[in-house]
Write a structure and sequence with these properties.
The protein is mostly helical. It has 2 domains: about 5-70, no CATH class; about 75-125. It has helices at about 10-30, 35-50, 50-55, 60-70, 75-95, 100-120, and strands at about 75, 125. Keywords: Membrane, Transmembrane, Transmembrane helix. It holds the Pfam family DUF454.
């Protein structure tokens, strides 16, 4: 991956911290995924400052999740279940708040696409 110009690198680091913060919120809030934000944060840190990327990857649970994703090892089966259930719950609970039928249909389609992506495209990590 090419290194971005020097003036842009601090912006990548700032974005990495913002994404890391959202990821930590995802660890605390039920139904809000955290892993995707950490994966994005690691990518931002890699463009901004590899030392921050190394810091993120050295975190006990987070680093393993990001490393597994990057290596193509996928997600544990339990995590896939949790992610799919969270998507279904989020769509189901928010659907009545969308006043337009087109918006509701679009929201359901996005939820179905998200679940199908997790089920079919992300490999299931087997227990070691």
């Amino acid at each position: 991956m090419p290194t971005p110009p020097r003036p842009i690198r601090p912006l990548w680091v700032i974005l990495g911290f913002l994404l890391t913060g959202i990821g930590f919120v995802g660890l605390i809030l039920p139904g809000f995924p955290g892993t995707v934000w950490f994966v994005l944060a690691a990518a931002a840190f890699a463009r901004g400052d590899p030392r921050w990327e190394a810091w993120l990857l050295s975190r006990p649970v987070i680093g393993q999740l990001v490393s597994d994703y990057r290596a193509g090892r996928g997600m544990p089966l339990r995590a896939k279940w949790v992610a799919c259930v969270c998507i279904v719950l989020a769509v189901s609970l928010s659907l009545p708040r969308i006043p337009v039928l087109v918006g509701q249909v679009t929201w359901v389609i996005l939820g179905v696409v998200g679940v199908l992506y997790i089920v079919w495209r992300i490999p299931t990590k087997r227990a070691e």
